[in-house]
Amino acid sequence: MKLIQNCFRIVIVKMDSIKEGSVSPVSSFMAKDNLKSPSSEKGDQGDDVPELSFSGQSESESETPEKPHSTKKTGDSSQDPKSSPSKSSTDSPEKKRKLELTEEEQSAHKHKKERQEEERLKMQVLVSNFTEEQLNRYEMYRRAAFPKAAIRRLMQSITRSSVSQNVVIAMSGIAKVFVGEVVEEALDVIEHTGESGPIQPKHLREAVRRLRQKNNIPNTKTKKVLFNT
Amino acid sequence: MAESEKDQFDDEEAEEDASLERRKKIFSKELRCMMYGFGDDRNPYTESVDILEDLVIEYITEMTKKAMEVGRPGRISVEDIIFLIRKDPKKYSRVKELLMMNEELRKARKAFDEIKYATTK
């Protein structure tokens, strides 16, 4: 029973974080806290059935975040102490969970904006204290990008149909992150073996081998055969 | 002889007119800056840049091929790319951020143009 509750808590948290586009630890903690209180309230209900029905609803709830909360809140708080029949008891915790999701979402939103603001300030302070060499490197890091025309030409030669501008933007961004991953892994390899200096092809090859093991590099050329005959 | 080789290979590999042994490097300048930005020496080795360029082209090719199979087969949309990237948090958040910035820039440009139109009229 507790296991089921925990599993559904994780599902709700995951769906929230996917919607926001990034996993934010604050909102996930808040989700767990908010979900704990109503479950302790209805600790009397020992059945699996009402909890299963609640969880099925909660997944659909988390998909529809925008809900008016002021009117529902007053209605539910009056209903809760009288929750003996099964129908009302499953309705009110659902509604309560709906509110808590939207409330926690709003506060998570605020927290996220605050955190973004904080991060921007921290970056400003950091960059203002860079040495000249660090400034150069940072400028290169921010400015270097793949030319959109070349990427578009490459993709169009593969797909034989035209690609939209957003796709080109996305692909160049992903390619840059990919280069960053390989270079960072290669620098890791250099540090591991205790060498120094510019990156050599052997470091790159080792880095790619490591990344392939972690499945960070797609490969559709060789297919692994699981069971032969 | 180069032509017959080209006929045997798919379109995916014969993207330039040059022969296949020495493909023209299309990302050399940008890759050098990028490697320096990510931590390499100020002048990275040319062989390393070559290897990285091959890696990038292969990566883009693979992602494009996979994206063509996902969603509407034969066409690529942004959702396909996002779907392929979903397990990788770095790339996923980067793509979301880029697209969001692009939207904001477009809105800002549109608003600016409207203001300009209103004031000049």
UniProtKB/TrEMBL annotation, chain A:
Main location: nucleus
Keywords: Nucleus, Transcription, Transcription regulation
Superkingdom, natural source: Eukaryota
CDD domains documented for this protein: HFD_TAF11
Ranges of Basic and acidic residues composition bias in the record: 33-45, 64-75, 92-101
Compositionally skewed regions (Low complexity) per UniProt: 76-91
Disordered: annotated span: 23-118
Name under which the protein is recorded: TAFII28-like protein domain-containing protein
From TrEMBL, chain B:
UniProt xrefs under InterPro entries: Histone-fold (IPR009072), TFIID_TAF13 (IPR003195)
Compartments where located: Nucleus
One Pfam family in the UniProt entry: TFIID-18kDa
Domain of life of the source: Eukaryota
Record keyword Plastid present: no
Broad class of where this protein is predominantly found: nucleus
Keywords: Nucleus, Transcription, Transcription regulation
Coiled-coil portions: none
Protein family according to the UniProt entry: Belongs to the TAF13 family.
Designated name of the protein: Transcription initiation factor TFIID subunit 13
Species annotation: Tegillarca granosa (Malaysian cockle)
Lineage: Eukaryota, Metazoa, Spiralia, Lophotrochozoa, Mollusca
